[in-house]
């Protein structure tokens, strides 16, 4: 991450500075930009009276910016408005070629600087990619954002830095194409992240996966020229406050053609490098937790493979025997994510977890239901679900709970196996969740379907375009509250 967030006690004179003003401000407070000449102060006051929310002044030697906090119904919505203001700020900072920005928060509770800085930092993401011309390789000018004042500490600012780095790690993985990130390379990248951040990684290869009889992962992998992997990440710091671990499970389909149930290419298969966004979110979350030394025992499980229609590929009509022993009739090879997640969810039981959360780009039904504005959630624990939804509102990665009524079990009944991997046309996201529920027995469990927000085809404020790193901030906030 090229942009660094840093704490500074005060801003030096003639520094590029943004002042966050309280909601409803119509006259510039005396404490803001004390070096302004009267004519410049009058200009700012005129802009405030005209209800401008982002004002800039060019002093030739330095820039002054003024952002008015939004008057929203809840603190969470006010924070989100400031993240979006941070995105607008970043565009202005690029134009003005600002290298270092100081943030001074003049709101009464100093609650605006962190979300504004977060919006700036998340907007600064650039995928390194594979371009070779010098112009496209130019680094952005902005390199430092300093948060100033007594309301902040070095630790608080560094915590935000690590969370943003976790999001960027997830984005980088999602944006990497399959020929640069097969299942083995994905596992190696997760192991490298563990070495950097401070968590342990174990990679199960094909032989060990076969020994464990993970029929779902092996079945999806049958048509691939590349072997599968099953990555186990464990962050267990001294002084962890939880007796039972929290387990995160992420779908790691590094590329999905749909298998023999082949996808159409336009607007479908062409973006399927993103089908491992759940697995990317798991490693991004563990990275942030470990970097910030959150005292919580957390385990991450990522089954990884691509899904291809090669010669021995599994076919509609096949019956797979899963790690749990359940049999599954495959009616659609493009419903593969639930098959590899099922093995991981059954495997998670060995840890006697306090809670298991899985995340996956699982169904188009979830995307159609609520769009890219939210995450579809289902589960078997009301208390944890409510806490997760509260975290979702704080970080603006909101979770909409869908039901898992017993009647939905009828959608996945099979004539020849225990269950089938495809439900009805109606309630497709729920029948996928109901399928996973059969393998998540013996512990509290939450399923997050991130099909819509994980990868965006057009820029959306600070989430950008392409991989968004969705659920890293959500899970970090949720898990921190459990410590």
What gross morphology would you assign? elongated
Q: DSSP strand (E) fraction?
A: 15-25%
* Stretches with pLDDT under 50, minimum 5 residues: none
For the termini, the CA-CA separation is: 27 Å
Number of helical elements: 13
Question: How many runs of DSSP E, i.e. beta strands?
Answer: 20
The helix content, as a percent range, equals 25-40%
Radius of gyration, Cα only, in angstroms? 24 Å
Largest sheet data: 9 strands, mixed
Q: Quote the average pLDDT.
A: 96
Structural class, judged by helices and strands?
alpha/beta
Function: Presumably involved in the processing and regular turnover of intracellular proteins. Catalyzes the removal of unsubstituted N-terminal amino acids from various peptides.
Subcellular location: Cytoplasm
GO molecular function, one term: aminopeptidase activity
Pfam family, one: Peptidase_M17
Description of the molecule:
- By secondary structure, this protein is an alpha/beta fold.
- It is 34% helix and 21% strand.
- The chain is built from 13 helices and 20 strands.
- The chain has helices spanning 38-49, 75-96, 113-123, 154-175, 183-197, 206-211, 215-221, 277-291, 337-348, 364-370, 382-395, 428-437, 472-482; strands spanning 4-8, 17-21, 54-58, 63-68, 100-105, 144-148, 200-204, 229-235, 246-250, 252-256, 298-307, 319-321, 327-329, 355-360, 375-379, 399-401, 419-420, 445-449, 455-460, 464-467.
- Strands 7, 8, 9, 10, 11, 14, 15, 16 and 18 form a nine-stranded mixed sheet that branches. A six-stranded mixed sheet has the order 1-6-5-2-4-3, sandwiched between helices. Strands 12-13-17 form a three-stranded mixed sheet.
- It is elongated and about 80 Å long.
- The active site is at 263, 338.
- One of its GO terms (molecular function) is aminopeptidase activity.
